[in-house]
Every structure is written in structure tokens, then in C-alpha cells.
Design goal:
With 326 residues, the protein is α/β, with parallel strands linked by helices. It folds into two domains: 3-122 and 297-325, Medium-chain alcohol dehydrogenases, catalytic domain (Quinone Oxidoreductase, Chain A, domain 1); 126-266, Rossmann fold (3-Layer(aba) Sandwich), CATH 3.40.50. Helices cover 31% and strands 26% of the residues. The protein contains eleven helices and 15 strands. It has helices at residues 15-18, 45-52, 117-121, 126-135, 154-166, 180-185, 202-205, 220-229, 251-256, 266-291, 307-314; strands at residues 3-9, 19-25, 33-42, 63-64, 69-76, 88-90, 100-104, 145-148, 169-174, 190-193, 211-216, 230-238, 260-263, 298-303, 321-325. Strands 3, 5, 6, 7, 14 and 15 form a six-stranded mixed sheet that branches. α4 packs across α10. Bound molecules: NADP nicotinamide-adenine-dinucleotide phosphate. NADP nicotinamide-adenine-dinucleotide phosphate binds next to α2, α4 and α5.
């Protein structure tokens, strides 16, 4: 039986403690299935949640880690006609950090060939989330301000670039001065350093216009600052919790400013919106990638054998995704 490499875990826990590179049997496609060979996979915060056992949906153990990657069909089972060997597709979500995986042909998500492999690998979770955050929660008039924390995250960089395309203006909260210039080069209208007193100067930043939408993937103080500067009847959307702190809501803003707080989860949105909704969002993402109005930086690429270095790098200051290639 042919073997392949996979980054697996047999228990939930910290990635560097529970993950290991294993040799497993290479799967053969059953009737109606295709086998996909991985070209590149990403490391995302939700991978840590899935490996750690805290995410909204978990895999049965033992599991292959990783959620997002792009691949190419390298074998097809009996009865498959709608897709052929060589087609570029999303790597199956059930464990992207492995060399190949099988998926029913009916579930295959085709990926345009005129988008680079690196951009395609990053295209399935963060850019569509950013698009939904900007388009599907609050109806924003052109010229509206959007505030976000983790401005240098993949979602944050997508928000900055998509906002430009959609005619919106952004204020991005970051933790390092060194990020100001690169974010501005990508189209960020304002970049502010967390804890620098920017909250008191928000009127200067927006030239007196109110902020309708705040995007929070951090929690704690960072999220609290957003509530304090949101305009009357503004909305804060929480879609991540990088500090693992409670999202607190200062009562007076709820009462006197009618500020609203909602959540967003891409996985759930996809289920609700169905295939048509997914196609609409992915088509918008790929159009922007093709036109070059959306380009997400890659910080570094590692082989599977170097996955521990990749995970350590992922946790250090960076601007761009870490990719894994077999
Ligand atoms: N709900 C959904 O459907 C959904 C979908 C996609 C993403 N997300 C969430 O969106 C967030 C960003 O994901 P991503 O893949 O775009 O991230 P990413 O590219 O991996 O970047 C991570 C970001 O988190 C920041 N960060 C990490 N630890 C932090 C801390 N303790 N305090 C403040 N900031 C911290 C980093 O800032 P520094 O560079 O300063 O460390 C960086 O901006 C995550 O929370 C993720 O779970 C949610």
C-alpha cells in the first residue's frame, strides 16, 4: 500500500504537544469520488481551536489537522465525469495538512486557474469572511467608516482591500508601529496603535463622521475601545477571540447609544446561504484576486517536515500567512 505524510493528532491539546508527522495509507477514490493532491495549505487561528478542542465543530480523533488548502485532482473513481484529473480544487476540509485526500465529486469546489496557488490556498476562509462582514451584516452607504482590530490579520488585510473596492473607509487597530506603512500601502485609510489614546481622537480620525460598523476578532480592551467609538445605533460584529478574554459591553453604550452586538461564523453562514450564497461570495473574492485589488501577503512557506518551525513562526510577529507544502 502506498504511504503518504500527514500531520495528525490523537488527542486535543496544544499543537506543539499533540501534533506529529505520520506515515498513513494513501487513500484511493471510491465510486463517485476524486482524490486531491495538496499544493499548499494555510495555518489559521481556527486550526488551533480544532486541534485544541475548543472550536465550534471538532473532528473525531485521531484526526489530520488543517482546514484550508488548494490542490489538484490526481485520481478519479468510477462514475465521475464532471471533473477530470488536473483540475484545481479546494483541498477537502477534513484535514488539509496531508498529501492527498478523497472527496465526493459532487462536493468539489473548483478554483480558478488564473489565481496563483498561494492566493488560492488563502482564499477559502478569511477573504470570504471579510466580504460577508462588510456586505452581509449592515447595509453601509458608500463612504461609511468601518473599524476593525487585528488589522494585519488575513481577515484584516482583506477588509482593508475590499473596503477600497466597495467604496468604504477603514480604521485598523494594530499592535505595532511597523505595521502602519505596509497597511497604508495596501489601502488602509487610518491605522491606529492599540492603547495609544486614539479613542480620544476618533473625531479627528473620521473628521467628525460616525462609525457604523466595528469588526472584532480580539476581545478584551481592544473590543471595548470599539464600543466606545461606535456611532449611534452602530454594530459591533465579533467573529474571533484572539485574547481569549470575555467580550465585555459597557452598559451605557447599550442604553444611550443603542449600540448592537452580533456574532459571525463563516461555517454557519455557508450552511445557511447554501451553494448559491457560497458561489456569490467566492466569485467576488476571485474577481478581486484576479484583478489584483485583493492580494494577501505570504510570510513564509514550510514543508510538512518543518511544521514545528512553521507553527512557531505563525505565533511570532508577522505580516502574512504561513503556508505548508508537502
Ligand atoms: N468567525 C469566523 O467565521 C472567522 C473566519 C475567519 C477568521 N476568523 C477569526 O479572525 C481572526 C483573524 O484570523 P486570521 O486568520 O485572519 O488571522 P492571522 O492572519 O493568523 O493573524 C492573527 C492576528 O491576530 C492578532 N493577535 C494574535 N494574538 C493576539 C493577542 N493576544 N492580542 C491581540 N491581537 C492578537 C495578530 O496580531 P499581531 O501581529 O499583533 O500578533 C494578527 O493580527 C481570528 O480570531 C480568527 O479566528 C473568524
Amino acid at each position: 500500500m502506498t504511504q503518504q505524510k500527514a500531520i495528525c493528532h490523537h488527542a486535543f491539546g496544544k499543537p506543539l504537544e499533540v501534533l506529529q508527522l505520520e506515515e498513513v495509507a494513501r487513500p484511493e477514490p471510491s465510486d463517485g469520488e476524486v482524490r486531491v493532491r495538496l499544493l499548499a495549505a494555510t495555518i489559521n487561528p481556527s486550526d488551533y481551536g480544532m486541534i485544541g478542542g475548543s472550536y465550534g465543530r471538532l473532528r473525531e480523533l485521531p484526526a489530520v489537522a488543517g482546514r484550508e488548502g488548494v490542490g489538484v485532482v490526481d485520481a478519479i473513481g468510477h462514475g465521475v465525469s464532471r471533473i477530470g484529473v488536473g483540475a484545481r480544487v479546494r483541498f477537502p476540509d477534513g484535514g488539509a495538512w496531508q498529501e492527498t485526500a478523497c472527496i465526493p465529486a459532487a462536493d468539489v469546489l473548483a478554483v480558478p486557474e488564473d489565481v496563483s496557488i498561494e492566493q488560492a490556498a488563502i482564499s477559502f476562509i478569511n477573504p470570504p469572511t471579510a466580504y460577508c462582514l462588510l456586505k452581509k451584516i449592515v447595509n453601509l452607504a458608500p463612504g461609511s467608516w468601518v473599524l476593525q482590530n487585528a488589522g494585519n490579520s488575513a481577515v484584516g488585510l482583506s477588509v482593508i482591500q475590499m473596503a477600497k473596492v466597495l467604496g468604504l473607509k477603514t480604521i485598523s487597530q494594530v499592535r505595532r508601529e511597523a505595521l502602519i506603512e505596509p497597511l497604508q500601502a495596501l489601502g488602509a485609510d487610518r491605522v491606529v496603535i492599540e492603547g495609544s489614546g486614539w479613542v480620544e481622537q476618533v473625531n479627528q480620525l473620521t473628521e467628525g463622521e460616525s462609525i457604523r460598523l466595528a469588526l472584532n476578532s480580539i476581545g478584551g480592551e481592544s473590543a471595548m475601545h470599539q464600543i466606545k467609538v461606535l456611532g449611534e445605533s452602530g454594530t459591533q460584529v465579533t467573529f474571533g477571540g484572539m485574547v481569549g478574554d470575555l467580550v465585555r459591553f459597557p452598559t451605557r453604550y447599550l442604553i444611550f447609544n443603542n449600540v448592537r452586538m452580533v456574532g459571525f461564523w463563516w461555517d454557519q453562514w455557508c450552511q445557511r446561504a447554501g451553494k448559491d450564497g457560497l458561489d456569490e461570495v467566492m466569485s467576488a473574492v476571485y474577481t478581486m484576486m484576479r484583478e489584483g485589488t485583493l492580494k494577501l501577503p505570504v510570510e513564509a512557506t514550510y514543508s510538512f517536515a518543518e511544521y514545528e518551525r512553521a507553527l512557531k513562526h505563525d505565533k511570532s510577529p508577522r505580516l502574512g500567512k504561513i503556508l505548508l507544502k508537502p
